[in-house]
Amino acid sequence: MPLEVKIPPMGESISTGILAKWHVKNGDAVKKDQPLFELETDKITSEGTAEAAGTIALKVEAGAEVKIGQVVASIEAGAAAAAPAAAPAPADKKASAAPFPKTASKPPFAPGSPAVRRIAEETGVNPADVAGTGKAGRVTKGDMLSAAEKPAVPATPAPAPVAAAKPSAPAAASGERQTRRKMTPLRQKIAERLVSAQHSAALLTTFNEVDMSPVMALRSKYQEEFVKKNGLKLGFMSFFVKAVVHALREVPSINTQIDGDTLVQNHYYDIGVAVSTDKGLMVPVIRNCDTLGMAGIEKAITDSATRAREGKITLADFEGGVFTITNGGTFGSLLSTPIINPPQSAILGMHAINDRPVAIAGQVVIRPMMYVALTYDHRLIDGREAVSFLVKVKQEIEDPARLLLGL
């Protein structure tokens, strides 16, 4: 009897979604746990996997709206599932014409995450030739980016122009002046929340600037030892997360939310860190930041960002945050006014680090400076409290020893 492939439950508040993409074709042989489809909802994007091996029959087209629990395909166990991996199949023939042909020494690669496939299409790097560092040896986005940065082997001729494989090429080649596509549920929800925040809160932004040289010097001095001990780099975000926790303790009104006509004072420190993905901005929450060290925060941020970009994030990862940090500086932003993430009452915006002349002890010196912005809900946070909070963050970053001593 065929095994039904159903849309899995995504949380009590999610009842429908868009089956955005099939990773397999009708009649393909699939393996157990192989990614089958990509599902987009108004909160998260996730992948559906095969619960058994066999031959798949698709029942729903890509782009269709589906309900939780709806049957979208069936898997029939049979000879096709047991066929040797080396046996030629239509999918293999198509792959041999792709910018990254399979080598005879490696088996055909299984479909990876959406981010991995996109990088493969854009760079020509074959995921089958990349050593995976993910769970069970799975190739991650970071693995692909690292492989793409390596110089090509001279003896291997360069493939046909990779640019031709980019999604934007067909529209440009057709000469069309416009293309139209429906907003995804996630993008619609982001738009709805941003407009709601603008209309329902009294938003105000205050600014300051931070001398990043003390943190940069500390990172430079201990980076090598930190990497050896923890297996990942020490970034700027962990310093700002710790600084925010200290500032929230100093100015508790920032850690307050409005619930109708009631003020809710939070006594915990779950901080949301904004992550840019192909599907839009996501804000996974790092739990109990007051109890985590720098390494713990860095690991939590890296794990959340990776799962968000690979469609492995869950609804629970977004719930319960009391404050958000967003870093537009990674894209070169010099200054911005971020919008709060309801029901939170404030958000910190980080920006690009640029060398600028500043006056210190009566002398003009060049220092790596960053503008920081705090947008807050003026209905419950006064300007004095907002400025005090931002000054506290500035003090912690400019004297990082305070973070270690809890001052």
Keywords:
single chain, 407 residues, alpha+beta, OB fold (Dihydrolipoamide Acetyltransferase, E2P), Chloramphenicol Acetyltransferase, 3 domains, 4-stranded antiparallel sheet, 11 helices
Write up this protein.
This protein is α+β, with helices and mostly antiparallel strands. The chain has three domains: 1-83, OB fold (Dihydrolipoamide Acetyltransferase, E2P); 106-173, no CATH class; 186-405, Chloramphenicol acetyltransferase-like domain (Chloramphenicol Acetyltransferase), CATH 3.30.559.10. Helix content is 30%, strand content 24%. It has eleven helices and 19 strands. The chain has helices at residues 79-82, 90-96, 114-123, 141-149, 168-174, 185-200, 213-230, 237-250, 294-309, 383-398, 401-405, and strands at residues 3-6, 16-22, 29-30, 35-40, 45-49, 54-58, 65-67, 71-76, 203-211, 256-259, 262-265, 271-273, 275-277, 280-282, 285-286, 323-327, 346-350, 353-360, 363-377. Strands 9, 12, 15, 16, 17, 18 and 19 form a seven-stranded mixed beta sheet that branches. The chain has a four-stranded antiparallel beta sheet with strand order 1-8-6-3. A hairpin with a 2-residue loop joins strand 13 and strand 14. Helix 8 crosses helix 10 (383-398). The longest helix has 18 residues, at 213-230. The chain is globular, with a radius of gyration of 24 Å. The relative contact order is 0.12. Residues 79-110 and 151-169 have low confidence and may be disordered.
